[in-house]
Amino acid sequence: MARQQAEEQISRLVQSCPDMPSLRRIHALLLKISPPSSSFFALSKILGFCASSPSGDMAYARRIFLQMPSPNIFSWNSMIRGCSNLHPPSTEPISIYRTLLRRGSASPNSFTLSFALKACSLVLALCEGAQIHAQACKFGLDSSPFVLTALLNLYAKCELVGEARSVFEAAQEKNLVTWSVMIGGYARVGMVNEALEMFRKMQEMGIEPDEVTMVSVISACARSGALGLGRWLHALVDRKGISLDMELSTALLDMYAKCGSIAMARKLFDAMPERDTKAWSSMIAGLAVHGLVEDALALFAEMRSVKVKPNEVTFIGVLSACAHRGLVSEGRRFWSTMQELGVHPSMELYGCMVDLLCRAGLVDDANSFVSAMPIPPNSVIFRTLLVGCKNTKMVETGEDVARKLLELEPTNAENYVLLSNLYAQSFQWEKVGRLRKTMKDRGVKAMPGLSCVEVGGRVHEFIAGGGSHPEMEGIRKMMKEIEERIRRAGHRPVTAMVMHDVGEEEKEMALCEHSERLAIAFGMMKMAPPVIIRVVKNLRVCADCHEVTKIISREFEQEIVVRDRVRFHRFKGGVCSCGDFW
């Protein structure tokens, strides 16, 4: 009885414990009272503090856990949850969950499953998460709100929106968190219309959005370039009095930057009372992708002057800025600065440096840089090299790079298309034919160009070649008018990049059906100057479409902004903001 009272007193001390030094003293007191084998309750409380408190210590928690011969489920949950909060995320919490099942000394509860599922979502362990889903059904815990929310989060993060939607529909009680996660899942895969529809339904149900919800839906607008919708959401934030914390402010400035309104992004950034590394990095990246190189590099210098530590994302923005202007010596200097500051080069940073060298035409230097990498290059880096070879017409080097690339990604159609374009521009049609046969034999289908344009509060998608848009008849009529005007203006199609050995007329028709031209034509049908047409494309803009859009902007006095996979192109008066360097 006295021991039980002592343990209860210890537990109360843990509840009011301020830090780890105090906890160690409480632990020492417990060990004087009773051995670990007979003080499960108090030990589990100490373990819980180590695993969940901001001032906790997971190494200390592990040592305590190993001393417990039969941990209760609270202790197992504390370990799984605590390890899930460590950075960087790892598979350790999943291993702890497996050990719990294998020992069978305690039965998992809804918290166990939700913590384990969270761990799976952090490392995108879909297979393990699906197994835990099955176990939740087996244990009769699949209807728990905690488990359902964790499942929804897992499937949304793994971009399985169909499975996420099924879990969402199964939830009897939809609280705010489930709506936010579902909206975030749609945003992650670029399904902006579905994300916004979900947002509208949430409001119809009388559920008020919070900062997390707004970040999710604003991110959807950022991915699709839906500036009008983004502005409406910004106004909604103001109207409902939602707090503009740092994360929401950063999401808004990122949305404006990615939707082509870089001036508004900068206005928001300048108005932020505090800015963390993420905010600085987002603004630098936004300026870079708009080709505002001097502004991006000046902002980086300002970031350094106010003692905000740059990270990997910051240097991705800085090196991208250098790449958009071909600033090789500056890029090399920033590469050295990055290493001096202790930022270890990631694969993406290596890719930025390769991109910089290739854009400047220094493909041999880029190749040497890749050969000297301390980590094996991934497919993105080899693909960047192949683009460089295509742009400089280095067929032999391109073939060598393509061999390595196809070993890594034998079923990625983009790799074959790039090599085909390299052959096509040098009129090696026999090699193009062989490559197309290889694609057919391997069941590889080329990814079509996809472009989006926002009209009337809805994002409209267009696929190269036409597709099934309900207003395609009117779009083709508009395209014919555009074609006649640009021909009278002296345009001659750049057909060298069309990868078919066919006549010039067929090549010209293929170019006319590119997705951004369909999107631009639709935008011109529905909107008139001075309204700006804003298009987002999943691939890089080709040389012919770039030239055509310049002419359209002059002949129709129509400003057009195109965000391709690499950067923004602002067409106005026959000139592009990229200076024809992209």
In short:
The chain is mainly alpha-helical.
What does this structure look like?
This protein is mainly α. Helices cover 65% and strands 5% of the residues. It contains 30 helices and six strands. The protein has helices at residues 2-15, 20-33, 40-52, 58-66, 73-84, 92-103, 110-122, 126-139, 145-157, 161-170, 176-188, 192-204, 211-224, 227-240, 246-258, 262-271, 277-289, 293-305, 312-325, 328-340, 347-359, 363-371, 379-392, 395-408, 413-425, 429-441, 472-488, 504-512, 515-526, 543-555; strands spanning 450-455, 458-463, 533-537, 560-563, 568-572, 575-576. The protein has a six-stranded mixed β-sheet with strand order 2-1-3-4-5-6, with helices on both faces. The N and C termini lie far apart (78 Å).
Q: Helix/strand-derived class?
A: mainly alpha
Going across the biggest sheet, name each strand in turn.
2-1-3-4-5-6
- Alpha-carbon Rg, integer: 28 Å
Q: Which residues form runs of ≥5 with pLDDT under 50? A: 499-507
Helix content: 55-70%
Task: Count up the helices.
Answer: 30
End-to-end CA span: 78 Å
Overall form: globular
How big a fraction of the residues is strand?
A: under 5%
**Mean pLDDT metric:** 90
Strand runs, count: 6
Based on the structure, what is the oligomeric state of the protein chains? Answer: single chain
Largest sheet: 6 strands, mixed
